[in-house]
Amino acid sequence: MTAEDVRTDAVTDDSRPPDARWTRPAFWALLVGAGVLYLWGLGSSGWANSYYAAAAQAGTQDWKAWLFGSLDSGNAITVDKPPAAMWVMGLSGRLFGFSEFAMLLPQALMGVGAVAVLYFTVRRTSGASAGLIAGVVLALTPVATLMFRYNNPDALLVLLLVVAAYCTVRAIDASTARRMTMWMALTGCAIGFAFLTKMLQAFLIVPGLALAVLVAAPFGMWKRLGALLIGGVTMIVSAGWYIALVSLWPADSRPYIAGSTDNSLLQLAFGYNGIQRIAGNEGGGPGGGGPGHGPRGGAGGMNLFFGGDPGIGRLFGASMGAEASWLLPAALIGLVVGLLPTWRAVRIDRVRAGLMLWGGWLLVTGAVFSFMEGTVHPYYNVALAPAVAALVGIAVAQLVRRRDSLMARVALAAMLVATGVWSFVLLNRTPEWWPAIRWGVLIGSILLAVLLSVRAHRLGKATVAVVIATAVVGLGGPAAFSIYNAASAHEGPGTMSGPQKPGGFGGPGGPGGKGAPGMPGRTDSPELEAMLKSADNRWAAASIGSMSVSDLELKTGSSLMAIGGFTGSDPSPTLAQFQQYVADGQVRYFLADSGRGGPPGQRAGSAADITAWVEKTFVKTDVGGSSVYDLQSPRS
Predict the structure, then answer these.
(1) How many Å apart are CA 451 and CA 395, to the nearest integer?
(2) Which pLDDT score, from 0 to 100, does residue 492 have?
(3) 478 falls within a domain
(4) Residues of the domain holding 628
């Protein structure tokens, strides 16, 4: 028998024990619980991120705006991400009527779907128990609860990436090379559409998926390489069709691609949303050029809002720690314990393949998030949550099965103590909030770790009680923060998990909430809103930057032009284009002092030129406390 025969026999032999009768009801209970967590009080955060909400609303008003992800139904400029997430929200609004709930409903359902797909993925390599543990961990990860109730693109991104992992596992588990190739084609398709959700971030999981196929698929090397090649081709096609559509569509007949320097989706992908994110220097004027983007450096809230300082400890730091790192130490221990003893083994089983897949996902994505110099927000960590959850589920299930071994019991105890101690540290960062939780988690983890290391193989009738106690202790911290996230309102271009100090970062007046520093919006003005509703031009008004424009669009349903995109720094429209719009009667008013574009002295490029021309040419009036220029009333 050759080494290739050993590999084939080892991988295709189904050594999983049959599922216990309780696993199916437990799975449905998991989905119901996740649904309640993500759907309860959905819409309490209002429009959440008004930048994406305005684009979703525009997509319900105009099909071209839906296709391109325009910020306005007049199609002046897009949001600075590809439109896949806006497609889903826009269709939901068209089906159910546009509202906060209709906009956020797809995010919650995608969260439940991600939990379900993760269960099936982990179950195929490590059994139903591992899948259930992974599903519970993902469902209760604070940043997952946050993003599955929010309208940033991350919910769709996570679902598509987990689907890609599922297709890869099916490819590894295939009985024929043809089926392996088919499943890898589906993997590439999922990653391609993930690219159309959040661009290059979708590719961070590719090394882990490719490694698992190369090492564990039960076929010859050339067949494995061929399957990977087919996956790459379908990935390019499933993302490239839209890039080609945008490139071939006449530029004067579609909105400007926000965040790009040359009205190109490819430049946006590989520039502002690509290399510049990793290397820094996004530029873009005050604030950086996208929703919540801005200067990362400095102390205090804004540094937290932009991920803190790059380095190996960033994922555990004050900015990112509470999002997804609760069980990260346990996941890393489980990965090492699972791989090291069999590293030189010829036999490549499903469990080891799963560890390689999820370990590659975690290590590559975690390294990029840790060391990238450009814009990075705490909620990005939702992309780590499925890998952490899967590794914990696989490791715990395997170690429990080998609990007769002292080494397995010690490893289980180490994972539990690491989780308890780290949860204590994270909870202690908000010491005034339910201090009993952190002490209960710490003390309980130590006591249970001692019990597991000594008597895990002799628990007898106490097994169920110990399992429940271990789950409560291990998941107590993240569950508490997840429940807090679900029960609290979150608004603004970015948001963070867990309780925040009043007036501090993420709370009232913090960067994640209303009135965030450097992110002012307009106060309610019935007079201004009535004026905009009465305008029947292509754009009721124009203003510098999108922050107050987005809010007014949502309140009035009118099409408003955000000159220069989110921060006012994009070169669109030019002064000549804007003057032509005014001459043609396509834009009625100009709203000054919009806040997000910065004061006139800080503006540059077309935004500064347009502002100066309007102030020189048209009459200014006060409407509900806002400075408004009527572009049909020139100075005499």
Answers:
(1) 19
(2) 77
(3) no
(4) 526-634
